[in-house]
Design a protein that fits this description.
Layout: E1 2-13, H1 19-24, E2 26-36, H2 51-64, H3 70-84, E3 87-96, E4 106-112
Antiparallel strand pairs: 1-2, 2-3, 3-4
Helix pairs in contact: 2-3
């Protein structure tokens, strides 16, 4: 089993509950941990999950619709990864800096088999 980790995928989006978040947008950070089979041991990209394609799926989901909650955004990304790639498991964390709270970031994590 191979664990592919993509952390810090930064995308701009218009997600959130607050009108300000939906109007002005903000940066979101996505972290993906994807368990894949041993296909990549062949050392051929054709046998592996291409990182560029994973990032493209994250972008498609984030750009494709607006989410009120980062929990729903994380779940939509996880579901899209499972639907498009031969993965054993995926864990998606979405982080943002809340506009109205004194926090480094808020995060939601979703895991799918």
């Amino acid at each position: 089993m191979i664990l592919v980790e993509l952390h810090g995928i930064e995308l701009f989006g218009y997600h959130g509950v607050l009108e300000e978040e939906r109007r002005e947008g903000q940066s979101f950070l996505f972290d993906l941990d994807v368990e894949v089979g041993d296909g990549a041991l062949s050392d051929r990209i054709e046998d592996a999950v291409d990182y560029r394609e994973l990032v493209a799926v994250v972008r498609e989901v984030s750009d494709g619709r607006r989410f009120d909650l980062i929990e729903a955004l994380a779940a939509a990304v996880a579901d899209a990864v499972v639907a498009r790639f031969p993965v054993e498991r995926v864990r998606v964390r979405v982080r943002k800096r809340p506009a109205d709270l004194a926090l480094d970031y808020a995060a939601a994590t979703v895991e799918r088999p």
